Amino acid sequence: xxxxGTGSSAQFNYPIGVAVDASGTVYVADANNHRIRKITPAGxxxxxxxxxxxxxxGTGISAQFANPTGVAVDASGTVYVADQFNHRIRKITSAGxxxxxxxxIRGFADGEGSSAQFNNPLxxxxxxxxxxxxxxxxNHRIRKITSARxxxxxxxxIRGFADGEGNSAQFNYPTGVAVDASGTVYVTDYFNHRIRKITAAGxxxxxxxxxxxxxx
Length: 216
Hints:
Blueprint lengths: L4 E2 L8 E6 L5 E5 L4 E5 L4 E7 L7 E2 L8 E6 L5 E5 L4 E5 L4 E7 L7 E2 L8 E6 L5 E5 L4 E5 L4 E7 L7 E2 L8 E6 L5 E5 L4 E5 L4 E6 L8
Antiparallel strand pairs: 1-5, 2-3, 3-4, 4-5, 6-10, 7-8, 8-9, 9-10, 11-15, 12-13, 13-14, 14-15, 16-20, 17-18, 18-19, 19-20
InterPro entries: 6-blade_b-propeller_TolB-like, NHL_repeat
Keywords: Repeat
Pfam families: NHL
């Protein structure tokens, strides 16, 4: 369902991604409600942006998302969203103003802003310099967006499994990303059943997992 409110009076519909800012406010990618929700430390839930399924930049409920899955927040309170079925990375100010950081139609292309293309972007994270990293799921790549909105491919190429550098590495539907203080990126490589690690130079290795689905 959908409802703003406090604690158990609030409702979500397949929430997927979460991020927390320095003040303890939680941001949620409420995927099937097509909204980004905000939860105060006291548990009060409100809608930061989004409304019905679609695509629109704008403020608050005048903006539209299509199954947002990943969220990240920077030190200034700006929220970044992997807008999966719009194949875009969106940006939301603390006042709820939504704009498009990068992406356009579904596809694959490096480039600046709307000249770049993604295919089901699922996860986002930020480094200390303000670079955004994207798990570009159906492109099987990890993408990087600078503060100047320039999109490049950090690692990955065709669907598969291979450690290596840059486009010699392969992923199989990467879904989640995180980055540490040194700029090393960590990836949940969904259908390869592995956790991968990427240096700032784009060298990919396997941190954990055997490639076999299971638990051990």
